[in-house]
Amino acid sequence: AEARQAAAAAADALRTKNYEKAVASLEVARSGPGVSLEQGVAVHSSVVALESELIVAARNGDPKARRAYELLKALKSK
Fold first, then answer.
1. How far apart, in Å, do the first and last CA atoms of the chain sit?
2. CA separation for the pair 64, 77 (Å, rounded)
3. Quick one: which of 12, 14, 9 has its CA closest to 30?
4. How many CA atoms lie within 13 A of 64 on its CB side?
5. Contacts of 54 (CB under 8 A, 6+ apart)
6. S-S: 57 plus which of 9, 13, 62, 75, CB 3.0-4.6 Å?
7. CB 25 within 8 A of CB 10
8. Are 54 and 69 within 8 A, CB to CB?
9. Number of Cβ atoms within 10 Å of the Cβ of 77
10. What is this structure's pTM?
């Protein structure tokens, strides 16, 4: 349930371009207890899509996207 709520929060954050919240929500979804294989794959796919969106937005000069991308990279290196 927690992973599902975090995934929904990430989707909402992406729609509103709240990139840092999207990154944080996906991290919660990924690290939550009892995440099934299917949920893990879905979260991974969302992270990949988010990373692509952040790269494009950062290249277009969006400072929020640049900060969120740095946060995402830090979380991925954990």
1. 24
2. 20
3. 9
4. 11
5. 19, 65, 66, 68, 69, 72
6. 62
7. yes
8. yes
9. 6
10. 0.88
